[in-house]
Amino acid sequence: MYEKLTIHELRDKIKNKEVTIKEVVDDVFKRIEALEPKVEAFVTLNKEYAYKRAEELQAKLDNGDNIGILGGIPVAIKDNMCMKDTLTTCSSKMLSNFVSPYSGTVVTKLEEAGAIIVGKTNMDEFAMGSSTATSAHKKTTNPWDTERVPGGSSGGSAACVAADMAIASLGSDTGGSIRQPASYCSVVGLKPTYGLVSRFGLIAFASSLDQIGPFTKDVRDSAIMLNAIAGHDSKDTTSVEIEVPDYEKALDGSVKGLKIGIPTEFIKDGLNPEVKRAFDEAIEKLKELGAEVKEISLDYAKYALPVYYIIAPAEASSNLARYDGIKYGYRTANFDNLEDIYANSRTEGFGDEVKRRIMLGTYVLSSGYYDAYYKRAGQVRTLIKEDFDKAFADVDVIALPTAPNTTFKFGEKSNNPVEMYLEDIFTVPVNIAGLPGISVPCGFDSKNLPIGLQFIGKVFDEQTLLKVSYAYEQNTEHHKARPNI
Amino acid sequence: MREDYEVIIGLEVHAELATKTKIYCSCSTEFGSDPNTHCCPICTGMPGVLPVLNEKVVEYAVKMGLATNCKIARFSKQDRKNYFYPDLPKAYQTSQYDLPLCYEGHVDFKVNGEPKTVGITRIHIEEDAGKLIHDPYTGDTLVDLNRCGVPLIEIVSEPDIRSKDEAIEYMQTLKSILEYLEICDCKMQEGSLRCDVNLSVRKKGETKFGTRTETKNLNSFKAIGRAIEFEIDRQIKELENGGTIYQETRRWDDDKGIGYAMRTKEDAHDYRYFPEPDLAPIVLSDDYVNGIEAALPEMPNVRRERYITELGLPEYDATQITNSKKMAEFFDKAVAKCGNAKLVSNWLMSDVSRKLNESEMEIDNIKFTAEDLGDLITLIDKGTISSAIAKKVFEDMFETGDAPAKIVESKGLVQITDESAIRDLVISVINENEQSVQDFINGKDKAVGFIVGQTMKASKGKANPGIVNKLIMEELNKRKNG
Q1: CATH code for A2-259+396-480?
Q2: Is residue B267 very low, low, confident or very high in pLDDT (cuts 50, 70, 90)?
Q3: Per-residue pLDDT averaged across B146-172, rounded?
């Protein structure tokens, strides 16, 4: 039953010796073993490692030593984060045999904070997708309805927290890959400001957009996880040198006088009426709690999606070029010369969505097309950022739905990639502008499928983001609902 | 036929920077280690790694830019150049595309006594690739990634070069500057300094450039010269025969002395350059650039002028000595010891250079010190040894590294200047060579030389030749008039 608790509940019980770390790990693995056949959230389980860590941490604790802010907490990480001597596949056939020779910075930070990394979670192949269904390994289901997708690309990380198969987890968000599955699975998903969390050891999809963040059962846990992973890293020059505050201290429960902007015009099209109802109720609640709600305009936000589908594939086409069958990863058995190794390894090793994006990216960077696509997208990106800057001159946070719909059935959108891409319409602008965003549970539709509320904050103002999320959460019951699985 | 054509050449020179560590990770840049021993997840392009720019690379590149009169960009960025090759594990080379660190510079030098200026289009930083090693026994191709991520600067010239001699002098000038700045070891045979030659020809009087070819990776002055000659001949012959020059990349086989076409423009790569999202732009302050400029060492051309005007060396000697910083430093130390610049220069230009060439050595590998050479010259100046003996002492110094005074002493080579001792020798030689004396008396002056030779031989070369000559004439004249 310990698997059902949050980080902040467990940390006290562990510290007060109400429970041993081994007992917590036992419960989590019992839960994983019971539910994995249904949820299929994990690519790799680190059972042996987990028990060894549990023993070490318990010994430290019994010795009176500090075991860290995540001491003894079982967490999961997305399978695009490198962990030394551990399979790291990006849910791709291409890396199906890749054992990382090093640990990424977030893995090191989690370990230093005392966390126990119980396993690596399933994802859309190379984080490309919004359903986790492009994984080469397995189909992760949504714990609220196993006929439906958990969202993506960090679907495994969202589903395992929703189903209590890990206390918390890490995902990565390039265009919504943390927030959208958090919304679909009714958990809290935070995408920090670009540059707050080191990307060293995160297998790149789109380098200028990727950011690692936590999935948790509530907002307080989100703050604790962020405390563990945030901060400058000398191995990542895009991580910013700023003083990292204690995010948990921002959770004062109040939104009085806080100005919340709503981009009404931007969100009116294509929004599912049940999602709209839940969103409107959430805004009413925030008003009730003393927030000041203001209408804002984000004129360029509607171009974020096309901009994203130029910049992200362009960077991906270059980032994924290293998977050539020469040094590591999948190599075709069928070749006569070097060109064949490249072409056949990549043809056989990558799935359709990955190939689609590599081709898109190669095209937009080609000589003669660069100016019309990549360069132009960069210019529009600047306009989108300026749009947000203007809005934030008047408001403290922006609120909008996380996704226009609730979770869909397997196969429902896979024939039409563009329809799938539209699920990211409200999350993508945040990545394009490099801002922090969070999704918190805000209710259910008539089929009892979760709905998420998204807040967007100013650059490096995760504190206000967490503050408003916490106040909303503590005054509603949505986060307490658990899937019946 | 050849005199009807004008040759247009531009060079792209790659210099490996002598930083201790690689451009984006902390692996060693050392040359010649076992394959794949200076590697880490970063330089081998493992999934998930990120580059961190080595600041020394920027500093060195800025030094080169300032030393070649370039403008230094206060804002520049790095870009990815995408292509597949097994020696490039990331499948892109991090380089600089449209905003290089240094731009619009020039270098001045002399070719056969004539002044020449070549414009520098740009100097940018980039990473080197690994090496492919073809195993002749198994037929396999193996990859050595030690060189992956070794920092390079690429120095791109304007198409200002008009001959093989100009190309070689230009390259020599860059090499000297790199050495003076101590930013590249310039070991061409190890590939740490190499160049690509862009070359076209056109009929004299034409204003449009002809189609150019690019011959890649030339790593000796000899190869540069021969490849240029070959390509000039080939292009002129092709045109004279009514053929067409194609824009192509060519390879030079220095053993066979033949260039080959590698790939044409049609199958040229589309490198799909775009800004490297993993690295922040390089922003330099005026203070930073001014600080580097203030600390630049004396450049070879300044040193050469100083040698000519202050030390009175001939231009040719001054150029030869200052071309190599190590040679110039050796020169300075030897002059400081003995005070005779002209004689030090003569020794360096003749005996020292000859011995270095014979034994294929560099000046810094020589066994004796510059101060030893100074001492040797002092021994000559003071008359302790003759020039002839000095050459023998020099041979010994070169072999053993012993100090000249020690050699002179242990071998008893001190010059005999005692007139009475020499006179005794002279008299005995004259007495033993009556025929020569008679020849002299009969007006055959040649006979003197023979007697001088015999006397020197009798003294084992140690007698002061001036005194020997003087006394022989005295003694012979005594006989003649007596």
Answers
A1: 3.90.1300.10
A2: low
A3: 97
Residue ranges of domains in chain B: 2-291, 298-410, 419-481
Terminal CA-to-CA distance of chain A, rounded, Å?
Answer: 14
Report whether A95 contacts B47 (CB < 8 A): yes
Query: Which residues of A are designated catalytic?
Result: 78, 153, 177
Residue A153: asked if its preceding bond is cis (omega within 30°), the reply is yes
Alpha-carbon distance of B207 to B193, in angstroms, equals: 33
Helical (H) or strand (E) element with B15: strand B5-16
Q: Are A150 and A140 within 8 A, CB to CB?
A: yes
Are the C-beta atoms of residues B176 and B39 closer than 8 Å to each other? no
B15, B186 in Cβ contact below 8 A?
Answer: yes
B141: which residues sit within 8 A by CB, 6+ positions away?
B86, B132, B133, B134, B135
How many CB pairs below 8 A link A and B? 99
Which strands, in side-by-side order, build the sheet including A259-262? A42-45, A116-121, A74-78, A168-173, A211-216, A188-191, A437-444, A450-457, A397-401, A259-262, A292-295
pLDDT tens track for A384-427: 999 999 999 999 999 999 999 999 999 888 777 787 888 899 99
The closest CB to that of A322, out of B91, B273, B274, belongs to: B91
- Domain limits of chain A? 2-259+396-480
A234:B80 CB<8 A: no
* Cα–Cα nearest to B392, from B460, B443, B482, B335: B460
- C-alpha to C-alpha distance for A165 and A50, rounded to whole angstroms: 14
Task: Identify the three-state secondary structure at position B143.
Answer: strand
In the prediction, which pLDDT does A484 show? 92
CB atoms within 10 A of CB B87: 17
Question: Cβ separation of B47 and A338 shorter than 8 Å?
Answer: no
3-state secondary structure of A388: helix
Only one residue has tokens 């990545």, namely A431
A-chain CB neighbours of B41 within 8 Å are: 101-102
Torsion sign (Cα): A352, A353, A358, A361: positive
Interface contact A359, partner B, CB < 8 A = no
Q: Write the ipTM.
A: 0.95
Token pair in block for residue A67: 């075991």
Q: What residue type is A21 in one-letter code? A: I
CATH number of B419-481: 1.10.10.410
Inter-chain touch A201–B48, beta carbons under 8 Å: yes
What is the mean predicted confidence (pLDDT) over B163-187?
A: 96
Q: Is some CB atom of chain B closer than 8 A to the CB atom of A342?
A: yes
Residues ≥6 apart with Cβ < 8 Å to B250: B213, B214, B215, B216, B231, B259, B260, B261, B262
pTM of the model: 0.89
